[in-house]
What we know:
single chain; alpha+beta; four-stranded antiparallel beta sheet; 8 strands
Amino acid sequence: MPSHAYLVKDNNELVSHCPCPQAQIAYPPQADCPWCGCGWLFSCIDCRKAFTFARGVQVSEPWEELGRRDLRAMFEKEPNDDDVDEWVEFMKRFLAEVEVGKQYVVFDGRLIPTDKVRLDFDGWHATHQLDFVPQVAALKDKAILATLLSNVNYWESHALGDSTPSALGLPTVRDRETKWWKFWK
């Protein structure tokens, strides 16, 4: 069976509510309130709880099975093939640059290696120009949790306006909930 790169919880540092020892990441849950954590924390594919740091690993579980497991846990129902295909297509793109053994965080729709020195990009919600990776910096300076990561003013003052994930061609939690509402009922 062919294997592929994926992300699993690396540790319980900074924020970690997930008790799973081998937690694999779920589809990025970012909504329009990234300061709540959905814009800078991973979710566990099984327990759905958040954690901060993930590491690249090789997994043998096929993409389609991962997608079914994630969507089943999200909606508590068996997903249809089209939804699984959409999940697989997105996650393959999202994880395309993952290197086995390397540590990552998620920040506004982007996977960021924790050894990155500077961030300069337009995310799903905001534009970011930082000389540090916020989650890594917050390990030494907890104030970053309040002044940047969880700060509504930071996110809104850097907001892209109409450049929502949907406008960028990327599904968001709200888009998926709208599309899959019939699926859930």
